Every structure is written in structure tokens, then in C-alpha cells.
Amino acid sequence: MPGLDHETREMVLDTLKKYAHDKLPPEYLIQLDHDDEFPTQVLQELYDPQHLGLHLVFIPEEYGGLGGSAYDIYRVSELMASIDLGIATGVLATFLGTDPITVGATPEQKKYWMSKIADEALLVAYGATEPQAGSDLGTLSSKAVPVTENGHVTGKAVPVTENGHVTGYKLTGRKQWISNGGVAQLYTFLANAPGGPSWFIVERDAPGFEKGKQEDKHGIRASNTAALFLEDVYVDADRLVGMVEGQGLAQAQAVFGYTRLMVGAFGLGAGWEALRRAIRYSQERVQGGATLDKKQGYTHKLIVPNAARLEAARSYIEWVAERLDGGEEGLQTEGAVAKYTATEAGNQAAEDAIQALGGYGYVKEYMVE
Ligand SMILES: Cc1cc2nc3c(=O)[nH]c(=O)nc-3n(C[C@H](O)[C@H](O)[C@H](O)COP(=O)(O)OP(=O)(O)OC[C@H]3O[C@@H](n4cnc5c(N)ncnc54)[C@H](O)[C@@H]3O)c2cc1C
What we know:
alpha+beta, 3 domains, 47% helix
């Protein structure tokens, strides 16, 4: 089984818990949420190898990472989400942004980009969704136009692997709702090349590349979500992930089992955190002559079923993680089931926690709403 040994995993989780305890007190998290602020420094510290080096968990050892498994990533995602879903989303977005490289890049590209992400602790964003292409990604309209050796732009499909004619591409298009969109240093960008949808790697400061303002969201407000605007952004041909056009949608599909598992772990982490707060409240709050945790009408409605649902979802997540770590590929459906059951369970736990805390549950200070 790949992944971290027990001791290393526990060390990563303990260090993260300690960091959250020391640096992310409730007042600070509430303020970030209120101000709709992305905490750049926190993300830098989370990624800094001298602090935590959290991004190293998903990078293979051969490229300077820790080589975490799906199981490890689920554990880290769950803990991150229990601390703050917005900050967790910033971390997850780098995992997601790197996925096209993990799945589709050539060995040389992997070595170069994964090592760079590991060494320079880069924030990465995943640019797939467009204003007109959301659930139906196949209708995307961003374009990658090949540039030939003599400098002329052509629309002709030239398979890069079979001849050396394409020196680069000009990327044009708009992306919508991109996590880390305004703050990443590196982007994976899905665009239609002559050979079909393909992923490209784009650096933050490429000429012609603009980022939109941070969206004012309903939740996960400490994460940065922004639109991307590309106008004739030139990238060298070796920025085409896998060096073959037309693999983009298959590469996006290939990681869904894995990425949905991470989102499921978010539901688990956030749901359990809300439930823990409800349990603590019930152990202290006296109503009707006893603490609420002594009242079965309360515990059997608001606490116990949530614990059961969350733990059932955990079993499913762990089962999918084991299969992925055992070498099975895809598992998109299983990933979707994990995501659905865990996020539904998490949402229900959060809703019940609001009820469990009575009037206190309805105000931000108690951090369950
Ligand atoms: C906070 C946040 C962060 C995000 N981060 C990223 C990111 O980092 N990178 C990225 O690429 N994208 C990101 N997204 C985009 C996200 O993946 C899309 O929002 C999602 O794919 C849905 O697309 P859409 O918003 O266009 O909704 P639509 O496709 O318009 O869907 C609207 C509704 O219709 C339903 N629906 C759609 N098609 C059908 C159908 N055929 N039959 C029945 N019902 C249907 C959907 O389930 C949904 O309920 C993010 C979104 C949010 C909100």
C-alpha cells in the first residue's frame, strides 16, 4: 500500500492541529469570514516546508514530496475542513490544480513541474469551468491556437509528438469560479486545441493573463474564487500536458474518483466539527433540570443520528481510498457516492448543530451556522 507510514501521518496531522491551535483562533477565522479575506500568509506557512509543507503530502517522493496516498489526503482534508472550510479549499485547490499534471504529464513534465511546486511551495489553480460550460465541460470555448516555427499562427492540428512544427500555443478564453484564481502562482487551463480539449500549464505573470476580483461568496469565504481572462497568452509547446492534444477531458475524468473523495472528506471534517460543538454545548447547558446530553429526545434527534451518518460515510470514504491506493483507476462513481453521502451527512450535522445550540447556534460567534 502506498503512502505515509503511520508515524509520519500522525506527525503531519499533529503539526497541523498545533498550527491551527496556535495561529488560527476562532476570532481570527470569524474575521476572515466576515471580511471575505484570503489569508495569504496562512497558506504560505501551511506550504512552507520549514513550517508544515502540507502541499508535499500529495507530491510523489521522487519529486521531493512525501508521496501521500488517497487515504492520507482524505485524513488531511478532513482535518483541514474541521479547522476552516475556506482555508481547506485553498489547500485542496492546489491538489486539484496539479491533478492534470499528475495524471497526464510526460515523465519530464512531471519531474519539472512537480519538483517546482514542491520546492517553491506554489499555489496552483485548476481552470476548467467557463461561464457557458459548467456541468457540461465538453462545451468549453477557450481556444489554444498553435503557433508555428516561422511565427505564423495557424489553426491546423499539428501533433506535437510527431513533428517539431509547433513551438507553442496562444491561449484565449475565460474561466469562471476558479478556486485560488486570483492568488495562484501556477494554473492548469483547459482549452480546445485543434486536436481537442487539452490542458496547458500557465504561469501567473504571463502577458495577456488577467484575474477577476474575489467573488463575494455565501460560504468558504476565506477561499479565493475568481474568474480568469486570457487573451492570446503565449505558452511554449512543452506546456501542453502530456504533449498530445485532445486528452483533456479524459485527464479531467481520471481524477474525479480521487478529488470527489477529498470533497467528501470536507463534509466529514466540517460536519464532525459542528457535531463536536453541539456535544460540548449539550454537556454544559442545563435545561429542564439536567444537562441536555441527558435528554434522549435531544440526543436521539440532534446528535446520535448525525454521528451514525458521518461514520457510515467515513467507512465508505475509507473503502474507496483503499481501492484507489490498491491501484484501481477511475472510480468516478464510487467517488461521487463518497462525496454525496459525506457532504449530505456533513450538511445535516451542521443544520442540526444550529438547532442543538438554540439561539446561540444562529449567531456567527458559536461557529455552527
Ligand atoms: C466555490 C466554488 C469553487 C469552484 N472552484 C472551481 C475550480 O477551482 N475550478 C473549476 O474549474 N471550477 C470550479 N468551480 C465550478 C464548479 O465546478 C461548477 O460550478 C460546477 O461544475 C457547476 O457548473 P455551473 O456553476 O455552470 O452550473 P450549471 O452547469 O449551470 O448547473 C446548474 C444546476 O443544474 C444542474 N444540472 C446541470 N446539468 C444538468 C443536467 N444535464 N440535468 C439535470 N440537471 C443539471 C446542476 O446540477 C446544477 O444544480 C467552483 C465553483 C464554486 C461555487
